[in-house]
Amino acid sequence: MALILAIESSCDETAVAITRDGELLSNIVSTQIEVHRKYGGVMPEIASRLHAENISVVLHEALEKANVKLEDIDAVAVTRGPGLIGALHVGLQAAKTIAMLYNKPLIPVHHLCGHIYANEYNEKLEFPLLAVVVSGGNSELIIMKDHLSFEVIGETRDDAIGECYDKVARVLGLPYPGGVPIDKLSKEGEHTYNLPTPLKGEHTYDLSYSGLKTNVINLVHNLEQKGEKVNVPNMCKSFQDVAVGLVIDRIKKAIEEYEVKEVVLGGGVSANSYLREEVSKLGEKTRTKIVIPPLWCTTDNGAMIAKVAERLYDRKLFAPLTISVDPNWRIEDYDKF
Ligand code: KG4
Question: Checking DSSP bridges between strand 151-155 and strand 139-144, what pairing results, if any?
């Protein structure tokens, strides 16, 4: 256990958290959502610039709130990947600068480990477990037989589920990020549009969202060409049933095959109310514990990076200052850099 400063900048949140012996002292998140909204998605170059502008301010605020000085910390942790290359670089350079100036160990953290371990702010993980990380950039099903042991059994073959929500929202004229408005409107709609289930009939834990996105776009354009009005709540409900249904199907199969003690959700899409409902029902039916992160911890933040870093600190998994970011870092290689 130690005093950890953790930096996260993999996408569109500049975030710094400080933990002492596992206790969260500060967790400052500066989100860029408003800026990216007008483009209907994250613009990588703008994201990097905003991280560069914000990182010192966020760092300062986190230190002040925690009443901690940089010389007091035991280690500096940072998200090394996966994520946007320029965005990751800003966080890593800040972390390296602190490590070098104050002679502190540098701990590179895998972003998806962060989404999984965020749940430890609520309760301890129990193994074997199935981790389902669903976000704007990732959709993965991971079996963990112990702490920091990861076996990816399924992942998206193309787009991430959150990315699909955001693109479907854009074609329906809904604001970015699209997850929340689609989730909300689905509650007012009915499943009336026929959208094919991706990878139907295939024996796989993989996911696929590119075809589903194209199906919605084509359907909307066809209706518009015929002069018919799209019923937006019904389209949201029809889309959400298929998008979330695919994840639920994979979870159901994995519970049976791997006999897991619990299913742990993580990532921005784990805020989805339909997913939370359906996975909870599945847990009751199969007598499997379902661990759902607190809402504040579903989107990117430094607290989740600090939670992983505490374990890596105990294992002395420190990196040399020569390391670089890895936008495609695989979770199985979380200790290779
Ligand atoms: O984890 P996150 O903050 O960023 C990445 O690491 O990608 O996830 C953001 C994603 C966005 O695509 C957003 O639309 C989606 O999470 N999201 C949701 C909901 N809230 C956020 N998707 C479905 N339902 C929601 N309620």
Answer: antiparallel
Q: Is 177 a pocket residue for ligand 1 (Cβ < 6 Å)? A: yes
Cβ atoms of 326 and 337 within 8 Å: the answer is yes
pLDDT of residue 16: 98
The low-confidence residues of the chain, meaning pLDDT below 70, are: none
Distance 139 CA to ligand 1 centre (A): 11
Q: What is the pLDDT of residues 253-271, one digit of tens each?
A: 999 999 999 999 999 999 9
Q: What is the pLDDT of residue 41?
A: 87
Q: What ranges in the chain are assigned the alpha helix state H? A: 33-37, 44-66, 85-102, 111-117, 161-171, 179-186, 210-225, 232-258, 273-286, 302-314
Give me the pLDDT at residue 66, please.
Answer: 98
Ligand 1 binding pocket includes 183 (Cβ within 6 Å) = yes
Q: What are phi and psi of 321, to 5 degrees?
A: -70, -5
Kindly list the strands in the beta sheet with 151-155, ordered across the sheet, starting from the edge strand earlier in the chain.
151-155, 139-144, 129-134, 262-266, 289-291
| Residue 81 CB less than 6 A away from ligand 1 | no
CA 169 to ligand 1 center in whole angstroms: 12
Decide if 41 contacts 35 (C-beta within 8 A).
Answer: no
Mutate to test the pocket of ligand 1, among 31, 165, 213 (most ligand atoms within 8 A of CB): 165
